[in-house]
Amino acid sequence: MSSGRTLEQWLTLLERRHPVAIDMGLDRIRVVADRLGLTDRPIADRVVTVAGTNGKGSTVAMLNALASHHGLRCAVYTSPHLLHYNERIRLSDGLVRDAELVRAFEAIDDACGETSLTYFEAGTLAALWLIQQDAPDIAVLEVGLGGRLDAVNLVDADVAVVTTVAQDHADYLGNDLQNIGREKAGIMRAGRPAVLGSEHLPSSVAAHAEEIGAVPVYCLGQDFRRTEPDGEFWHWQGRDTDGERVGLSDLPDPGLPLDNAATALQALMLADVSLTASAVEQAFKQVELPGRMQWLHRAGRQWCLDVAHNPHAAGYLAQRLCQRPPGHRICILAMLGDKDAEGVIRALMPVVDEWRVAGLPGERARDAASLALEVQRLGGHVTACHETPGKAVSNVLASSDHPSADVLVCGSFFTVADALAVMSTSV
């Protein structure tokens, strides 16, 4: 029965309904999933699930682009979003519409009974329900937090991907990399392929794959690899489902991490997709992912927006920025209080000349003043503190200082989202 609520009203209700924002475990969500019929049949012909600390979003984006350019009907679930909740769900005909989400939330509400779900759990069920109705050739699912106990793990992956393992979300996953790796490897299934997309994963990931009997298990740098870019192009070597060597040459730079590009190619091949050079080339030329090395031109400056919020991601970002022509660079930084600000700042210090720090709202907030002190303690030059990232962006847009400087905006999804909201009104 229709409640008459709008999408925004549903989202507000779901944010308030459960006593805690994150409630790890699959027991409650499985009860509701059973009532919705999600466990009666697969949500797609093939499902690829992607877990990891960093690189999930870019891997998912490239999987979607590759599948679509190979003529497959692809559906995607990812999180979080930047500006609109609809960004989280892409069905085979495009981003999910408000009316479809409302219909899904109403169905979930009817199925819940006395069972309480978190905002993320309800959103995950909505995505799975809509994808199942869409019946795509392939569904690509991004894990929200961890793996084993994440709501996305309700679905059995036909191909499991682990991108990277680093320290993040310590309150839920702890600080032991072996334990974190084991949690992320929990998306693997016995007798089904797994792709390990980093050469530096803790041993627990491969050990778990062997323990449960995931087959085959292909590791970056061993079973599949990519070359460093040779001019404009790079090369990939991988294996098919029979273990035979395959390769693609002269691939364009997708503008996203090549380790993740190589991983997406290997995962798609294990999902029984016959890769063609022309489709791969077009996919990598056209793939886009807002908030990940996203370059915009505003007020005479080049702006780079990246959601990097831990030292591993910030290190990759600094590495890419080092390849830019020399010049003055401003960093607008805002981070949550439970993130490793020191590690992020240390990683970015070699590529930043001027820091403008901002605060973020909410219970997990870190105010601008404390972030400025951390930057200064580490030797950075702070020129301004702002209440919000949006105000920092507005200030730089209006400033005539260093008119040709690059501007980096990073530290959180919230940081980039606030910046994009301001920049969308500026040409």
Walk me through what this model shows.
It is a single chain. With 427 residues, the protein is an alpha/beta fold. It contains 15 helices and 17 strands. The chain has helices at 7-17, 27-36, 56-69, 98-112, 119-134, 170-173, 177-184, 203-212, 258-270, 277-286, 311-321, 341-348, 368-377, 389-398, 413-423; strands at residues 46-51, 74-77, 89-91, 94-95, 138-142, 159-162, 194-196, 217-219, 225-226, 233-239, 245-252, 294-298, 301-305, 329-333, 354-358, 382-386, 406-410. The strands form three sheets. It has an eight-stranded mixed β-sheet with strand order 4-3-2-5-1-6-7-8, with helices on both faces. Strand 10 and strand 11 (245-252) form a beta hairpin. Helix 3 packs across helix 9 and helix 11 (311-321) packs parallel to helix 12 (341-348). The chain is globular and about 60 Å long. The chain starts with 6 loop residues before the first helix and ends with a helix.
